[in-house]
Request: fold
Amino acid sequence: MIVMGVIIIPVTDSPLRYPGGKTQLKGFINELIQTNSIKDCTYVEPFAGGAGVAMSLLLTEKVQEVIINDIDSSIYCFWKSILEHTDNFIKLLEETPVNINEWYKQKYIQENKDKFSVLEIGFSTFFLNRTNRSGIITGGPIGGYSQHSQYKIDCRFNKKNLIKKILKIASYKKQITVTNDDASVFIDKVIKFLDKDKTFIFFDPPYYKQGKHLYTNFYTHDDHVHLSKKILSLKDYYWITTYDLSKEIMEIYNIKNQKIYRLNYSANNKRKAAELLFYSERTTLPETNHIELISNI
Reply:
């Protein structure tokens, strides 16, 4: 949000900082679930990333369970680690120094994942996410390699607060399922076996224009086309899909249920961004103050 001309990064229940994260949509998505009278809701994110919305909805008990999926093995290892190896993860968090020498060690793990365990990869993902510019795993460290900047590598690494977030999420682990599939495969393998009346799905694919600069696993044009066919086949489900504003995506998702909306967004460029929102035939949009619905396309 923007207060007195200053951009304030939204508070999130997720321990991860995620480029393109949509935590600010949590209020809107909760309204969607309520408006469509989805009882005992299973909330699904095929492109989970930091899963900020999923964790907020679960921890405030707005949904019964969440299923989070990400094709990025690093992100998958992080979520598996904090849920299944919580104590060991917390021990690493407490004992690992946050400095540039450690940054190089954790970067090596990411570059040689076949040599390390799920826990080691998961912690490395977390460490680099918290210490890299914009949370981009493949990016450079906050403060630069020389650490001569005003902001140092540990400025986003409040151990006490991060431990608190992780422990709270882990206390809900029986209500969290984590998978590691391509989203199109995930639709066929998982979503199509879920109860249509009790499921809400939030598709947040890699951005069309900036995806290659933000994500490890970005999509080509053909990937976006293939995904759209899978999503649009879910006619009887409740879902929304968000994208960056691009002519190509509007042409790919050539359906009547699409709008432009604005979200106060602070991930890459600091701006109030206009983005695309698509929704299924079954989904009714609420009257909302959480986002600015500008128009039909």
Q: What stands out?
A: Confidence is low (pLDDT under 50) at residues 1-9, 265-270. The chain has eleven helices and ten strands. Residues 118-131 form the longest helix (14 residues).
